[in-house]
Amino acid sequence: MLKRSLAILTLLIIGYWLAQGLAGVPFGQDRMLVGHYYLEHVKEQTGAVNAVTAIVVNYRGFDTLGEVTVLFIASTGVAALLWRKKKKRSAKTEGSVVLTTGTRLLVPFVILFGSYIFIHGHLTPGGGFPGGATIATGFLLLYMAFTTYEIPHRGFEKTEGIAGMSYVLVGLIGLGIGGYFLFDWIWQTWQLGTDNIGRLFSGGFIPIIYILIGIKVGTELSGIIDNMVKEEVSE
Amino acid sequence: MISVYYFGAISLILIGLYAVLVKKNLLKILIGLSIMETGVNLLLISIGYVSGRSAPILSEGIGPNQAVDPIPQALVLTAIVIGVATTAMALSVAMLIYEKYGTLNIEEIRRLRG
């Protein structure tokens, strides 16, 4: 009891201190410095309509590369931590007929919608990470509904690696053409889709990179799910 | 007077911190970490809000002067993914701990045996 009240007291002090700090930051006021530049130049500099994805992929592309690396390390780490010689699904109860039939009907739509999200990353809210997470949800549904389902490991791991390598490759092509890593060569050098802003074939290399990221994130999260729902089988 | 968004974000951070400080169950501590992370993300997003403006997706009706700050949203996109990655790692460590010790109570997990 003493510990709890002491913790609450400390937390109240921390909260008051944070609130004092935030009192100098008025809510809802225009405080943009770099943000104005991004919003005003996003269309002619990147060809994307969605400013957030343009920042994530184009202006601050290194962040995304690091983020993809973090996710890759996490999926490798989960696989390494839960590594066993012989693994099998531990689930015993098959889902009800409604669940299995519903899953069979839904999974194609879930994957289609996930692909829609990451292909249209430069036009609509979303992008590679939400789209990839949606695709992984489809595989999670399969795992929940069928006790024997397993993702095809070889194909998935290869796809993941190839998608990650292609992302770096796109950046390296930019290094060769434009002089720095992750240079948007499709937009700046080739000027593809300059009269097409706001439609699908625009946005420089944002759609390409987001397709790669979407595939990578989808396979990675599915791999994490796969590792977590399995148990060791004793001989 | 502090904004309700700031207040909510700070409360989420504090609730998460409380769970980390007080709770004994490892899974509850992880839940606390996730709540804390949500609070941080909400704080970042609400700092970028500009009253009366819409999402930073420029279309015919929305020019550069009618959009909110896009940078915090990009930051939070990164932060969410990193949060998911760390949570996945922590959960698999928790699974291993339960297999090895048979308990998730942090007071009973005395020393890490090799």
Give a quick precis of the structure.
The complex is a heterodimer of chains A (235) and B (114). Chain A has helices at residues 2-22, 34-46, 51-59, 61-81, 97-119, 128-145, 153-178, 185-188, 206-228, and strands at 87-89, 230-232. Chain A is mainly alpha-helical and 235 residues long.
Provide a descriptive summary of the structure in words.
The complex is a heterodimer of chains A (235) and B (114). Chain A is an all-alpha fold and 235 residues long. Chain A has a domain at 61-67 and 92-234. Chain A is built from 9 helices and 2 strands, in the order ααααβαααααβ. Chain A has helices spanning 2-22, 34-46, 51-59, 61-81, 97-119, 128-145, 153-178, 185-188, 206-228; strands at residues 87-89, 230-232. The model of chain A has no long low-confidence stretch (mean pLDDT 87). Chain B is 64% helix and 0% strand. Chain B is built from 3 helices and no strands. The longest helix of chain B has 32 residues, at 70-101. With 114 residues, chain B is mainly alpha-helical. In chain B, helix 1 runs antiparallel to helix 2 and helix 2 packs antiparallel against helix 3 (70-101). Chain B has a single domain, classed as Helix Hairpins (Orthogonal Bundle), CATH 1.10.287.3510. The interface between A and B is large, with 59 and 48 residues.
Average of per-residue pLDDT values of chain A: 87
Our count of helices of chain B gives: 3
Rounded to the nearest angstrom, the radius of gyration of chain A is 23 Å
The most extensive contact between chains is: A-B, 59 and 48 residues
- Termini of chain B, distance in Å? 53 Å
* Structural class determined from secondary elements of chain B: mainly alpha
Q: Would you tell me which CATH topology of chain B applies?
A: Helix Hairpins
- Distance N terminus to C terminus of chain A? 48 Å
The radius of gyration computed from the alpha-carbon positions of chain B, rounded to a whole number of angstroms, is 19 Å
The quaternary organization reads as heterodimer
Roughly what is the average pLDDT of chain B, rounded to an integer?
88
Q: How would you describe the shape of chain B?
A: elongated
Poorly predicted parts of chain B: none
Instruction: Please mark out the parts of chain A with pLDDT under 50 across 5 or more consecutive residues, or reply none.
Output: none
Order of helices and strands of chain B: HHH
Largest sheet of chain A: 2 strands, antiparallel
Transmembrane segments (chain B): 6-22, 29-51, 71-98
Keywords (chain B): Cell membrane, Membrane, Transmembrane, Transmembrane helix
Protein name (chain B): Cation:proton antiporter
Subcellular location (chain B): Cell membrane
